[in-house]
Design brief:
By secondary structure, the chain is an alpha+beta fold. Helices cover 44% and strands 12% of the residues.
Length: 294
């Protein structure tokens, strides 16, 4: 919970998780013969950040006043944080601007038009909370016909962690994709960042709590406090009609609305490109019939 712009509980837990991840040799220190705690000691982080040990301990315990941006930058350097991790640190500490109110679900008209002009490209737009907001016909044929679903059921985070597998191992099994485990890691990290950006948005907070209560896997990953996953550049779908479809995966940030445009394409002339062309011509209704008979 944030007070005065600081989420002290999240700040302390995040600092502790990043400290325990580091080894002494990662920061040029000797491991020594006896270490009873994983990672760095609190006093070692304090020395590296040029702050007092007492103040750093109080930060991890959630008892310190809000740290300055300069102190946070020093701690981020001491803990070897990535850019995404450093941004998250400033967000939960209240030294970075938060987005007001709720995350946006309205898609820019030009993006909607673009989705339907892209040749042999499966495309869709997701919100900061992993809601599928818009899609083209090929995305519906490759994945599922989102128009047949209630808005709540179009949430990819729920599909990843809460839904059982649908016909043909699809639906809750993420459409038979090859990188389901990596995608779940990405969901957890991005939802943690979204909750920090939108602390007053009940939809984001309630989604996180629903996933924590409903999925032991999500709860376990959430406790790792990760905010950045490795990007997925290719993805393999197991489709009930055309079999294996290997696609290049590009996720483009729509910064003004905090959304992402996700595009799936296949190299020209490949078997997967032919499969996409077939699905594009057949439409989502053909895929739906195949699922119902599989």
């Amino acid at each position: 919970m944030q007070t005065g712009g600081v989420d002290k509980q999240e700040l302390g837990a995040f600092l502790r998780s990043r400290r325990e991840r580091l080894r002494p040799q990662d920061v040029g220190l000797s491991a020594g013969a006896r270490r009873r705690t994983p990672g760095l000691r609190r006093e070692e982080v304090a020395v590296l950040a040029h702050i007092s040990t007492e103040y750093y301990v109080r930060l991890e315990q959630g008892r310190a006043p809000r740290p300055s941006a300069e102190v946070l930058a020093a701690i981020a350097g001491a803990l070897r944080l990535t850019g995404a991790e450093s941004e998250h640190l400033h967000l939960v500490a209240g030294t970075a601007p938060l987005r007001g109110g709720s995350h946006r679900r309205d898609v820019r008209p030009s993006i909607l038009a673009l989705l339907h002009r892209l040749p042999q490209t499966a495309g869709f737009v997701v919100s900061a909370a992993f809601e599928v907001l818009a899609w083209n016909e090929l995305a519906a044929a490759l994945m599922e016909d989102f128009a047949e679903l209630a808005p709540r059921e179009r949430n990819l985070a729920r599909k990843a962690f809460l839904e059982p597998s649908g016909p043909g191992g699809r639906g809750g099994a993420l459409y038979g994709v090859s990188d389901a485990a990596e995608f779940r890691l990405d969901v957890v990290g991005q939802l943690r960042s979204a909750r920090a950006r939108y602390p007053a948005d009940p939809a984001v907070g309630e989604l996180v709590e629903e996933l924590r209560a409903g999925s032991a896997d999500f709860a376990r990953l959430w406790e790792r406090h990760d905010v950045q996953a490795a990007p997925v550049l290719t993805k393999t779908f197991q489709h009930p009609l055309v079999g294996e479809v290997v696609v290049d995966c590009d996720s483009l940030a729509l910064a003004d609305r905090d959304q992402h445009l996700v595009l799936y394409t296949a190299p020209s002339g490949s078997r997967s490109a032919q499969a996409l062309a077939f699905l594009d011509a057949s439409g989502p209704s053909t895929t739906l019939r195949a699922l119902r008979t599989s």
